[in-house]
Amino acid sequence: MNIVIFGPPGAGKGTQSLRLVKEFNLSQLSTGDLLRDEVNKKTNFGNQIEEIMKTGGLVSDDIINNLIEKKISDPQFKNKIIFDGFPRNLDQAKKLDILLEKYDQKMSLAINLKVDNEILTKRITGRVICSVCNKTFNIFFNPPKSCEIKECSKRKLNQRSDDNEETIVKRLKTYDEKTFPVLDYYLKKGIIKNVDGMQEISAISDQLFTVIRALRS
Ligand code: AP5
Ligand code: MG
């Protein structure tokens, strides 16, 4: 089944996506991660994207639609995608429906992780990422103890360039103005599941596992 996971910056979309991938053999499509891959290539195109991400705004729909079609059109991921950070505005949501229809697929579930703004800010400013295994931790809520990979003993803990207080305010504003209305689009389709994203990480996953198992049975 295809699933979309919603929530403001820091809600836990990436954290929960990885757990759903493992549990249900899905494939994560994080537009934020794909954009960061482009930025890391240090091309002109990557530099342009980085500038937009640093302002907390949205990258153009054309760039995003091109990235996602590659994944949706790949038969190995047919009806197995978890969309993380996409769609982020109404036009992207409509485009996604067109692409799903084109490749004979459908969206089964839209998860909405609800978290208060003060907690979001702490989650984002506290987020650190292992330079070796790419695992995400949080200095306040999920301290970086040890990674699973031996080489991680030589790790650095990196922060995302958009994880600062100034950009967070703008990212939250962009979410409220552009992304929040997309929830209504999925509400009308009757596939929204609201989830309290302020619980422990594993309590949230357990709740999501139950919802998804019920849909699959
Ligand atoms: P993107 O990378 O998608 O960022 P985001 O939506 O701002 O969300 P985050 O990745 O910050 O948070 P998350 O919900 O994944 O939380 P996480 O699990 O990491 O997008 C970045 C930028 O790219 C955008 O601003 C935009 O410019 C551009 N972009 C991306 N997609 C686009 C699109 N479709 N169109 C146009 N532009 C696009 O958790 C956060 C922290 O909290 C971690 O440290 C984690 O350990 C901790 N944590 C998670 N869950 C819990 C919990 N339950 N309790 C305690 N701590 C927790
Ligand atoms: Mg994320």
Describe this structure in words.
The structure is a single chain. This protein has one domain (2-116, 170-216): P-loop containing nucleotide triphosphate hydrolases (Rossmann fold). It has eight helices and eight strands. The strands form two sheets. Strands 2-3-1-4-8 form a five-stranded parallel beta sheet, sandwiched between helices. Strands 6-5-7 form a three-stranded antiparallel beta sheet. The model has no long low-confidence stretch (mean pLDDT 94). A hairpin with a 5-residue loop joins strand 5 and strand 6 (136-138). It is globular and about 45 Å long. It has helices spanning 13-24, 31-40, 44-55, 61-72, 90-102, 117-125, 165-189, 201-216, and strands at 2-6, 27-30, 81-84, 107-114, 127-130, 136-138, 157-158, 192-196. It is of the alpha/beta class and 217 residues long. The structure holds BIS(adenosine)-5'-pentaphosphate and magnesium ion.
Please describe the topology of this protein.
Blueprint: E1 2-6, H1 13-24, E2 27-30, H2 31-40, H3 44-55, H4 61-72, E3 81-84, H5 90-102, E4 107-114, H6 117-125, E5 127-130, E6 136-138, E7 157-158, H7 165-189, E8 192-196, H8 201-216
Parallel strand pairs: 1-3, 1-4, 2-3, 4-8
Antiparallel strand pairs: 5-6, 5-7
Helix pairs in contact: 1-8, 2-3, 4-5
**Main β-sheet, spatial strand arrangement:** 2-3-1-4-8
Mean pLDDT: 94
Ligand catalogue: BIS(adenosine)-5'-pentaphosphate, magnesium ion
From the coordinates shown, what is the CATH architecture? 3-Layer(aba) Sandwich
CA gyration radius, whole angstroms: 17 Å
Number of helices: 8
* Apparent shape: globular
CATH evolutionary superfamily: P-loop containing nucleotide triphosphate hydrolases
CATH class: Alpha Beta
Please give the alpha-carbon distance between the first and last residues.
12 Å
Strand content: 15-25%
CATH topology: Rossmann fold
Secondary-structure element sequence? EHEHHHEHEHEEEHEH
Count of individual beta strands: 8
When the domains are counted, the total is 1
Helical content class: 40-55%
Poorly predicted regions: none
Q: What structural class is derived from the secondary structure elements?
A: alpha/beta
Largest sheet: 5 strands, parallel
